[in-house]
Write a structure and sequence with these properties.
With 171 residues, this protein is of the alpha+beta class. The chain is built from four helices and seven strands, in the order H-H-H-E-E-H-E-E-E-E-E. The longest helix is centred in the N-terminal third of the chain and has 19 residues.
Length: 171
């Protein structure tokens, strides 16, 4: 993850951006976008989830999965037509770092995700906890996610915690 975050951040530096630093108001707007994204997942609302992304957004999934580019591909990736029903039961995120300029922000943090999938009588629970990086660009007055990358250990049954997020240490 460290190598990818270094490569990703270096690529960001090459993109044209405003020279002005991220203002306190823009930082709050970025934090609000991240809250809206997490709230949409907790509400199990696919349309609200994708509304937080630009049309050309890129997901860089865990475990070496190929990047997913564009909203249509993101919808197919997260909500495949032939998949069993999935319900998010917990999605917590902590932000460890936000840096940026007047029109671009880099966010690094941790997450905990718990969900149930399958038919009610045979539903299974799963839990992931890991790290994420998100890049956001200001489009007009709105901050939107352009790139999202996460990493976590392999999916574990709910109730197990082989690699807890640092935010959960001491709980």
């Amino acid at each position: 993850m460290r190598i990818w975050s270094t490569v990703l951040f270096s690529a960001l530096l090459a993109l044209p951006t405003s020279a002005a630093e991220l203002s306190p108001a823009d930082r709050l707007a970025v934090e609000e976008r991240l809250r809206a994204y997490a709230d949409a997942w907790r509400a199990n609302d696919a349309e609200r989830v994708v509304a937080n992304f630009t049309a050309d957004a890129v997901l860089m999934p865990h475990h070496g999965v190929e990047p997913v580019v564009g909203l249509a591909a993101i919808k197919r990736f997260w909500w495949p037509a032939d998949s069993p029903a999935t319900t998010i039961t917990r999605f917590d995120r902590t932000v460890d770092e936000i840096v940026g300029t007047a029109d671009m922000a880099f966010v690094r943090g941790h997450f905990v995700l718990e969900y149930r999938y399958g038919q009610k009588d045979q539903a299974k629970s799963r839990r992931n906890a890991g790290t994420f990086i998100a890049l956001l660009r200001k489009r007009g007055e709105r901050w939107l996610i352009t790139h999202h990358m996460w990493d976590d250990p392999p999916v574990q049954p709910a109730g197990t915690q082989p690699f807890p997020a640092p935010s959960e240490l001491g709980k």
